[in-house]
Design a protein that fits this description.
seven-stranded mixed β-sheet; 2 domains; Aspartate Aminotransferase, domain 2; three-stranded antiparallel β-sheet; binds pyridoxal-5'-phosphate; alpha/beta; Aspartate Aminotransferase, domain 1
């Protein structure tokens, strides 16, 4: 067998991959012919012997202890824990996608390249940007990549701008990414309505402003009403605008960062577009830019020759370089492509409309029982404050969250954002039924009642979980990773 024949994928026509693996007759290889004799084992490795059935039972038992969207409601604000259609998992497993190798010649992966090229364009259209890189492997990685592009842009103009402005309602990764990218961060206070304080912004910008990073809708679930004014103030000072689009579940098909005046945006495909997430990965955080930043994009991007064939565009002399091995998390890109193509523009808009509707429905039903610091219309998520329960009954938001475990729910995000006392941040997503939303609301109302009638019941929760309250600070600071118990 000629090795180069083993992985040839025949293209019937562009975009269609006819997949065939010729039979392999791998020749016996004498190890000493390929490995230096000094490195060869003389005895077999002492690997542990375990029965297959015991391994299966062990991992099945562990998986049962996990909580995920597939076994219950998971209204974790800012995280978009929504149901991911299983059919997109099947698409990611198509052999033409799953069995190709990054080192294959371009002509043998035209279908995969076309998929990436189309996804680049679809995400550009969705965000109002001119070009997109699919390489970054997470939201925070996209932020860092975007900031490196901003740095390269300013440097190409001979400007060494050093400061990145970040509102106090932004996601914690924003100041972290700015710091890792070598910028100094300037925190901007929100006004009483949870919006960027325009006067404070005017004071903060100057000749050293590299960029403003904005999460919109922000982590209070509010859309920045004066977004165009914000853009103007930053641009007038010579800074660029970075849009944290991790939470695009509220705006898809309705509003575009590019139209709001933004120069760079990242998306979290693993939140919005059909990849299950949690526990630190894997993810995909594509970055879209306006054309003035396009020369700096990580290379390669996927290009299209005039003859209709696709290629890795490596000829980008001003590129910041590669930010991820090969071409990012390919399987996640396939899922996003399948998701976008299944829903289409109308369907994506509907996703956002229902996500926003669900959040507003929950906020209004819960308003009589919890403090609502920012009443009005929210986007895909909203915040409550448990300060009324704390002052009246000594029951804190953490206690409410622990009690929710007994009802079979993953608790919402708590104590974030930091500018809301006893914060509870709820994101229902569009994929939950009204029955599920109502059952969760009823549980929250019941817990508020328990806090009044029997606070000890809530303070001692949870009762139904394998472990009770953990010392989370010690667990985070001194984790026991290798337990022989
Ligand atoms: C989740 C999130 C991020 C970070 O994304 P990761 O993939 O976890 O790095 C950034 N910004 C916002 C607003 C987010 O919700």
């Amino acid at each position: 067998m000629k090795p180069e024949k083993a992985l040839i994928f025949e293209l019937s026509r562009p975009g269609r991959i006819a997949y065939s693996l010729p039979e392999c007759d791998v020749p016996e290889v004498d190890p000493s012919a390929v490995i230096p004799v000094g490195h060869l084992r003389s005895e077999p490795a002492a690997l542990p012997e375990v029965y297959e059935v015991d391994v299966i039972r062990h991992y099945t038992e562990l998986s049962r202890r996990n909580f995920g969207v597939d076994n219950g409601f998971y209204p974790l604000g800012s995280c978009t824990m929504k149901y991911n259609p299983k059919i997109n998992e099947d698409v990611a497993k198509f052999p033409g996608f799953a069995k190709i190798h990054p080192y294959q010649p371009e002509e043998s992966i035209q279908g995969a390249l076309e998929m990436l090229y189309t996804l680049q364009n679809d995400l550009a259209a969705l965000t109002g940007m001119d070009q997109v890189t699919l390489q970054p492997a997470a939201g925070a990685h996209g932020e860092w990549t975007g900031l490196m592009l901003i740095r390269a842009y300013h440097e190409s103009r001979g400007e060494g701008r050093t400061k990145v402005i970040v509102p106090d309602s932004s996601h914690g990764t924003n100041p972290a990414s700015a710091t890792v990218a070598g910028f100094e961060t300037v925190t901007l206070p929100s006004d009483a309505r949870g919006m960027v304080d325009l006067e404070a912004l005017r004071q903060a910008v100057g000749p050293d402003t590299a960029a403003l990073m904005l999460t919109n809708p922000n982590t209070l679930g509010l859309f920045e009403e004066r977004i165009e004014d914000i853009a103007r103030i930053v641009h007038d000072a010579g800074g660029l605008l970075y849009y944290d689009g991790a939470n695009s579940n509220a705006i898809m098909g309705i509003a575009r960062p590019g139209d709001m005046g933004f120069d760079v945006v990242h998306l979290n495909l693993h939140k919005t577009m059909s990849t299950p997430h949690g526990g630190g990965g894997p993810g995909a955080g594509p970055v879209g830019v306006k054309s003035k930043l396009a020369p700096f994009l990580p290379k390669p991007v996927v290009g299209l020759h005039p003859d209709g064939t696709f290629y890795w565009d490596e000829d980008r002399p001003q590129s910041i370089g590669r930010v991820k091995s090969f071409y990012g998390n390919f399987g996640i890109l396939v899922r996003a492509y399948a998701y976008i193509r299944t829903y289409g523009p109308e369907g994506l808009r509907r996703v956002s409309e229902i996500a926003v509707l669900n959040a507003n429905y929950m906020m209004h039903r819960l308003a009589p029982y919890f403090d609502v610091p920012y009443p009005g219309v929210c986007k895909h998520e909203f915040v409550l404050s448990g300060k009324n329960l704390k002052s009246a009954y000594g029951v804190r938001t953490l206690d409410v969250a622990k009690r929710l475990l007994d009802f079979g729910y993953h608790p919402p995000t708590v104590y974030f954002p930091l500018n809301v006392e006893e914060c509870i941040m709820i994101e229902p997503t569009e994929t939950e039924s009204k029955e599920t939303l109502d059952a969760f609301i009823d549980a929250m109302i019941q817990i508020a009642g328990e806090a009044a009638s029997d606070p000890q019941l809530v303070l001692n929760a949870p009762y139904t979980t394998a472990v009770k309250r953990l010392d989370e600070a010690t667990a985070a600071r001194k984790p026991v990773l290798n337990c022989s118990c």
